[in-house]
Amino acid sequence: MLLLFSIPFKSYSSFTIRPYSEIGIFGGTSYYLGELNHVHFPMKLLQPAGGLFYRYNLNGHYALRSFINYSEVKGYDVYSNNVFEKNRGLSFASKILEVGSILEFNFYEFALYKDAKRKITPFIFGGLNYFYFNPQGNIGGSWVDLQPLGTEGQGTSAFPNRHKYSLHQIGMPMGIGVKVKIQRFAITAEWGIRKTFTDYIDDVSTTYVNPNLLSGEAAQLANRGTVPSATLTDKQRGNSKTSDWYVFTGITISFKLAKEAPCRDNN
């Protein structure tokens, strides 16, 4: 997908479009993909999401967008059809705050000038972002931060190679969408997935550890299933070979800051 951004686009028009800026809002839903959810658009796990952005349109085909988004992602083994996962019985919730920039590529020339004949175009995007997350588990109706507990032995002397994971991460947003022009407004419907480099958005990655090496609270949150913890030591809890992903999908509405030019520049 990102390779398309590096391919020079040949314009068959003698016109150019002056760069212009937009500000906008995003509203939609979010979900995550990892050990506690493997399907896209899980209806029981979708969470409301929102954000703000600034878009700088370089020309009719390319635009830079900077954004800040906020949402929550959740996962519950109880919704799985897999027997192992149902017996595992884990669940989590995590806030997601992300800030980043992406490059958009419009397949058709698209700009907010008054006489624009094309009012719609599909587009793709890709870029980099920073995001903060904080997985929590529920005990007796109260949410508890999981990262400080080290539910898989992170940060304990018994597992020197299992370091506590950072709640501050870098990701790679990428996705697709459709833009529509309505006077000085642009409306998009888009789906954007984030590749991450952590497997701990859900606090699940490796194996069960001996509960005697954990605090009482950590041991309770490490095993929420029906199988006794003592019999699970060193057995699979997650899959450390794959990282977690998360998705923001929805609608954006943006407003062109400068007055619309009546037409494109004629070089």
Number of strands: 11
Summarize the main sheet. Answer: 8 strands, antiparallel, barrel
- What strand order characterises the main sheet? 2-3-4-5-6-8-9-10
Number of individual domains: 1
At CATH level 2, the architecture is Beta Barrel
Mean pLDDT: 90
Radius of gyration: 23 Å
Order of helices and strands: EEEEHEEEEEHEE
CATH C-level = Mainly Beta
User: What is the overall shape?
Assistant: elongated
Strand content: over 45%
Number of helices: 2
How far apart the termini lie comes to 31 Å
Which range best describes the helical content: under 10%, 10-25%, 25-40%, 40-55%, 55-70% or over 70%? under 10%
**Low-confidence runs of at least 5 consecutive residues:** 1-15
Search tags:
267 residues, mainly beta, Porin, 8-stranded antiparallel β-barrel, 2 helices, 5% helix, disordered N terminus
What can you see in these coordinates?
By secondary structure, this protein is mainly beta. The chain contains 2 helices and 11 strands, in the order ββββαβββββαββ. It has helices at about 85-90, 215-220, and strands spanning about 15, 20-35, 45-55, 60-75, 90-105, 120-140, 140-145, 170-180, 185-195, 245-255, 265. Strands 2-3-4-5-6-8-9-10 form an 8-stranded antiparallel β-barrel. It is about 5% helix and about 45% strand. The two termini are about 30 Å apart. The protein has a single domain, classed as Porin (Beta Barrel). Mean pLDDT is about 90; it is low at about 1-15.
